[in-house]
Design brief:
single chain, two-stranded antiparallel sheet, 6 strands
Length: 214
């Protein structure tokens, strides 16, 4: 069964949702799943060179007490999934267009999931600027991709239009937040839901597929 995951590499809830999806899939070891990561831009207006994160967050969320509460919640939920968020290390709010291109290219090598995990860890735990081509080249090599080829692709326009078109399609489908999970192209679930909730939808999708093939 195919599961499309619409997410952005700078979305902390997407990182949490990824871990929860993995736990849900472990509950159904007898089934075979094809996870496909789809692009979404939390903020398409971030310049290609990125922005200072502290200034960006202050402008977007304003009140420091509100931001502190949000961070506390994310850290608590992340800890449950083995994610040690290090928000203080993050200096840049990157544009994620190139990270989505890298995720797209990783599909050809069959390592999309590894690339997504590495991007999340690089940004949220190591504080790396995942909008920087040099950082993306390093991360690509880290998961077994050809960093020279990735550098050449990043320097050009390869898949820029495809990523932008796919992200736009998500909006046209009515998706306004991520992560959003689409199971077997039929069942949609938004948010970093608990594994028990995810597996309920997975079971419905599996049953629907069985009815079609019966």
């Amino acid at each position: 069964m195919q599961i499309d995951v619409i997410s952005d590499a700078v979305c902390p809830w997407c990182y949490i949702g990824k871990r929860r999806l993995a736990r849900a899939l472990e509950m159904r070891p007898e089934a075979t799943f094809d996870i496909v990561w789809r692009p979404y831009f939390l903020d398409p207006n971030v310049p290609r060179e990125g922005a200072d994160r502290r200034a960006y967050m202050a402008a977007k969320f304003g009140d420091s007490a509100r931001r502190a509460a949000m961070i506390d919640t994310l850290k608590a939920e992340g800890a449950k999934e083995g994610i040690p968020f290090e928000f203080d290390k993050i200096e840049r709010r990157p544009n994620t267009l190139d990270s989505h291109r890298l995720i797209r290219w990783a599909a050809t090598a069959g390592i999309q999931d590894s690339v997504v995990e590495r991007l999340f860890a690089a940004y949220f735990i190591e504080g790396r600027d995942i909008g920087d081509p040099a950082v993306l080249e390093f991360l690509a090599a880290d998961v077994g991709l050809d960093s020279i080829e990735v550098a050449e692709l990043l320097a050009g326009d390869t898949d820029l239009a495809n990523v932008e078109r796919e992200a736009k399609l998500a909006g046209e489908m009515g998706i306004t937040g991520v992560p959003t999970f689409i199971f077997a192209s039929k069942f949609v679930l938004s948010g970093a839901r608990e594994p028990e909730v995810l597996v309920q939808v997975i079971d419905k999708a599996l049953e629907a597929e069985e009815d079609v093939t019966a």
